[in-house]
Amino acid sequence: MADDKLCDRTALELRRMIGAKQVSPVELLDAFVARIGRINPAINAMVAMDTDRARAQARKAEDAVMKGARLGPLHGLPFGVKDLEETEGLRTTWGSPQFEHHVPKADEWHIAALRRAGGIVLGKTNVPEFGAGANSVNKVYGACGNPFDPMLTAAGSSGGSAAALACGLVPIATGSDTGGSLRNPAAFCGVIGYRVTVGLIPTPKRPFGWTVLSTLGPMARNVADTALMLSAMASDDSSDPLATTVHGFPVQTPERFFPVHEADLSGLRAAFSPDLGFAPTDAHYRRVFAGRADIMRGWFAKGVDAQPDMTGADEAFEVLRASNFLVKHLQTYRTNKALLGPNLVANVEEGMRYSLEDYARAHAAQTRIYHAMQDFFRDHDLLITPGITTAPFPWTTLYPAEIDGRKVRTYFHWLALAYGVTLTGHPAILLPCGVDEGGLPFGIQVVGPRGSDAWLLRAAAALERRLAADARTARPVPDLAKLAASPPLREKSLEMLRPVLYPAAA
């Protein structure tokens, strides 16, 4: 079996080693395949694998190195692809039995871009059905377990990508984000999830091309690797109507994102908020965040408690989000409702209850919140919140119905810290920030000004370095030896999830 210690190095280190002929892309691929074989059964993060083709591509990458060819920024690096994103020749299911055997004939735009940069698709990562619900469980592959306790959720919908990164199954992975689908699993698994300004990464498959709700994004274990991956994904493309309008100038210049030079925190004004004024953050997470905020305040020129006026955020997001489910799944609901899981059915039925008046009111509220955020950033440079409102819970529970004894508004209300920021269109990055009172990963969401992606990465790199230097805030690492000795999760989870995902049959 290949030595998998290489898997613990950063993507940037590995890419430099490949270029310096210190490690072969084939040797590297074998290391990740070995790590997956040893650890993945316990967490079920990697699902459909493309090992044979990946090995063939690694051999070609090795030949290119030996011939002195020009190498792309990701040359020889394996990566994971969220199973909501189509990959040519590799099964893509969206976590749905409707597509259990679907094999796309072409890559999505960003997957092709990552391949052109030299990246090698190793496999797909687990998701909830069609990304609905921030708990990565589905009828095709079962549950994705949290690397720190496989019986707890890794969140979602990029749960498989986050869990795989935390365990070193891949050095980088793709994700996507609407109500926090990059940020929520990053918080639960102790990795980086970056929600970019919408349009920075062309996303032609957004059902509503002019909305800022959904975007693709990079995931990694540190800020530099995140920026490296983003340098290969950011571009301009007419297939995305928002891509040409970002920043008012071409977005495809990789050096804007990489390498990352740290910002000077001592000159910045930071605002800390446990709840953005409306999110149902539980008492446990409020305590942890207050302690972390006290550690960080002195790093900035000013560190105060403040937040923008987010009045109406819940109502606006509920309506706008529901419209996405109508455009994607209403036809299936009307013709074959049994094909949809309970989350999908609930979302479609919610959308059908709203009127055009509701939709107009939601857009007006979103616009008011956007303007409030612009006013806020005139007096602050960064907005820092907890990454999520509550701690990981068992994946057999689709969502927390109550937080601190109070019933949540919706099954996604516990994601309010993320979706409040989504409404504004501002970039946000999730940074690991130690562990909570139960010893599970705790993350912070760092929000930057409008269109500040390159600058936000610089600030995040500086924050990451300071956090890593303190044992209270350093990135947690899962116990791989314990995971290697754990029982396989997939079949067990499918059985345990039967009454949850098939409620009518139960």
The tally of helices reads 15
| Mean pLDDT across residues | 94
Query: What is the level 1 CATH name?
Result: Alpha Beta
Write down the Rg.
Answer: 21 Å
Relative strand content: 5-15%
Largest beta sheet: what is the strand line-up? 1-3-2-8-10-9-16-17-13-11-12
CATH architecture: Alpha-Beta Complex
Question: In whole angstroms, how far apart are the ends?
Answer: 43 Å
Name the structural class.
Answer: alpha+beta
CATH topology: Amidase signature (AS) enzymes
Helix content: 25-40%
Shape: globular
Strand segment tally: 17
Largest sheet: 11 strands, mixed
Low-confidence stretches: 246-252
User: Would you identify the CATH H-level superfamily?
Assistant: Amidase signature (AS) domain
Q: What count of domains describes the coordinates?
A: 1
Describe what you observe in this structure.
With 506 residues, this protein is an alpha+beta fold. The chain has one domain (4-304, 384-501): Amidase signature (AS) domain (Amidase signature (AS) enzymes, Alpha-Beta Complex), CATH 3.90.1300.10. Helix content is 38%, strand content 15%. It has 15 helices and 17 strands. An eleven-stranded mixed beta sheet has the order 1-3-2-8-10-9-16-17-13-11-12, with helices on both faces. Strands 4-5 form a two-stranded antiparallel ribbon. Strands 6-7 form a two-stranded antiparallel ribbon. Strand 6 and strand 7 form a beta hairpin. Helix 2 packs antiparallel against helix 3 (51-66) and helix 5 (159-166) packs parallel to helix 6. The chain is globular, with a radius of gyration of 21 Å. The chain starts with 10 loop residues before the first helix and ends in a 5-residue tail after the last helix. The relative contact order is 0.13.
